[in-house]
Fold this sequence. Notes:
Number of helices: 12
Helix content: 40-55%
Radius of gyration: 19 Å
Number of domains: 2
Distance between the termini: 14 Å
Strand order of the largest sheet: 7-6-5-8-9
Strand content: 5-15%
Number of strands: 9
Order of helices and strands: HEHEHEHEHEHEHEHEHHEHH
Mean pLDDT: 97
Low-confidence stretches: none
Bound molecules: phosphoric acid mono(formamide)ester
Structural class: alpha/beta
Amino acid sequence: MPRHLLSLQDFSKEELTGFVERALQLKKEQKQGVAHRQLAGRTIGLVFEKPSTRTRVSFEAAMYGLGGQVIFLSARDTQLARSEPLKDMARVMSRYVDGMVVRTFGQEVVDELAAYATVPVINALTDLHHPCQILSDIMTVREKKGDLQNLKIAWVGDGNNMANSWIQAAGKFGFELVLACPEGYEPNPDILERSRSEAISSITLVRDPAHAVAGADVINVDVWASMGQEEQQAERLKVFSNYQVNRRLLANAPDDCIVLHCLPAHREEEITDEVLESPQCVAFDQAENKMHIHKAILEKLIA
Ligand code: CP
């Protein structure tokens, strides 16, 4: 049976920690010029139904960096666009490639592909989860702050797929998580309830961003309108107007607090240019770490 990465719930704390620690090791070795060939002769298929810069390029660079190869398929390139059943796609792709990395809309798409694939299926973003992104974010926090156990991490903005995966991460890793979301834009209630029942620290939902960032070691922010929500842009600009991460908000947080943004950023909407370009913001280290964490994931699931 292949091991799939559909959400962070699929792995234990020890396994998730293993991804992060291995990625840190692979990053160090790459900087030292160590050549990796663990996936020589292996091929992954990237099936992306939504645009991507970082996730696509970092998965491709990771696979090539481990000696493997990549086939990229956009939505219009496959028969999925002409309604070929997912269960057929999964079984056919499994005959050609050693793993599938999928970016799509509904979580049910990756769930169904995984149910029929005989190779690992990796979720590269759905409307419900973004697990690989959160692993690279956790890696970045681990690099900057050390042990995760006693940290307070704040989420400011939409209770979206990123927020859902951060909630699952809190349930597994044991850090305190406080999410500030406007009414009607809360994270998935089932994910919140399950992770709260497993967590050793608190996972709290508040309305006031200043409350969320008080005493926080890490502040997370993401765009206010995700892919597929473009028609809600004007409404969301109004709803989230008090949730911008700016100098005024950061005045409520400790001076050594770091700011994470998974990018792409909409400057002067969810984050000011001043904060994004400041030393406090580690968004570009985060972006680099996507490649290292993807190496660790591919190595574990495919090699
Ligand atoms: N953060 C992230 O997923 O970026 P892309 O959409 O560019 O892959």
